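It is worth pausing here to work through a concrete case rather than discussing structure prediction in the abstract. The textbook approach is simple: state the sequence, then state the predicted structure, then interpret. We follow exactly that order.
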Amino acid sequence: MKQIKVLGSGCANCKRTMAIIEEAAKEKGIEIELDKIEDIGDIMSYGVMSTPGVVIDGQVVHAGGVPERKTVDGWLA
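Step two, the predicted structure:
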């Protein structure tokens, strides 16, 4: 199971990023643990200055803007 964190303040882009990840995992039948991190200190601890950010299994894979669906599919492959 992949542990995925979406870093951001709760803006529309953050919510859309979470939805894309949830949809992709469900369609692929992959079990994930998806968390939303809103604390600015926690976000900065990952070195992310532009949100939304995405962290998978402790590694930052994306920062700034909504990722494309094909990119998310690649993360879950």
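Step three, interpretation. The CA atoms of residues 41 and 47 lie 10 Å apart. The first strand starts at residue 2 and ends at 7.
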